[in-house]
Amino acid sequence: MLAVLSDIHGNLPALEAVIADARARGCTAFVNLGDILSGPLWPRETADFLMAQGWPTISGNHDRELVTGTPETMGRSDAHAIAELADHHLAWLRSLPADLALREDVYLCHANPADDIHYLMHRVEPDRIRDAHDHEIAEMLGAREHLAIGCGHSHLPRHVVLADGRQVFNPGSVGLPAYAWDYPHVHRMEQGSTHARYAVLAGEGAELTIELHHTAYDHLSSAARAEANGRMDWAVPLRTGFVD
Q1: CATH no., domain 2-240
Q2: 189 near 147, Cβ under 8 Å?
Q3: How far apart are CA 68 and CA 63, in angstroms?
Q4: CA 117 – CA 98 distance, rounded (Å)
Q5: 143 or 32: whose pLDDT is higher?
């Protein structure tokens, strides 16, 4: 079985808990959908851990920013991460692809197949966040024929089966259960729990199944780390699962 992880954001305790939970369920392979290190937690330690695993890994928008931006132009989370990373960590990030056809039946991206910014399975409107309709997801996917298509980025877990049988899923976030963002409109993405989340794929082809899972971990230690680094905007979501 395959565990699909996304949006770790340097939260090493959450990552370790997810791995333990996934292995207890029988997972023997792992894949990472990006946004790996950005944030006020443990970027260097998380990079060292993941590089040693050698998992298939794709780049998220924050990973891209870490290797294309400068500390002066980056947001606070990326700036904190890059200050702790060494050249070999950045070389690893540069090597990551933007998407990945993992198998003939499994395709993975960070946000959507075309870019790493716009949500595939959710829509941001001026007054609300909503689930994308099946036809909107299908339009964004185009003619991509993989039977399972996974994305991250929104931090919100979701699994749908399109009319043509393709399964589209977001495992949710390993490391950050809620955040606020101002693009394309000011909005909040909130899981409403402190659990670390991931997905499990079993079987292949027409027999492939997808399950969304979550596990508890010492989220208070991660919140304390964020607070010690002056980031209450991370500490509160880590403690509560909500932005405030």
Answers
A1: 3.60.21.10
A2: no
A3: 9
A4: 12
A5: 32
Q: What is the pTM of this model?
A: 0.97
Residue 34 near residue 60, CB atoms below 8 Å? yes
Do strands 106-109 and 148-150 pair parallel, antiparallel, or not at all (unpaired)? parallel
83-134 pLDDT, tens per residue? 999 999 999 999 999 999 999 999 999 999 999 999 999 999 999 999 999 9
How far CA 71 is from CA of 74, 79, 139, 141, 233, in Å, comes to 5, 5, 36, 34, 20
Contact assessment for residue 7 and residue 34, using Cβ atoms and an 8 Å cutoff: yes
- Residue 25: count of CB within 10 angstroms of its CB: 15
Q: Token pair of 136, please?
A: 């909107």
User: Which residue shows structure tokens 């990373």?
Assistant: 85
Read off the pLDDT band of 193 (50, 70, 90). very high
| Residue pointed to by tokens 């794709």 | 58
The distance from CA 218 to its chain's CA centroid, rounded to whole angstroms, is 19
Residue 239: helix, strand or coil by DSSP? helix
More confident residue, 99 or 72: 99
Burial of 118 (0-12, 13-18, 19+ CB in 10 A): middle
Cα 209 to Cα 25: distance, rounded to the nearest angstrom: 14
Q: Hey, what amino acid is at 136?
A: E
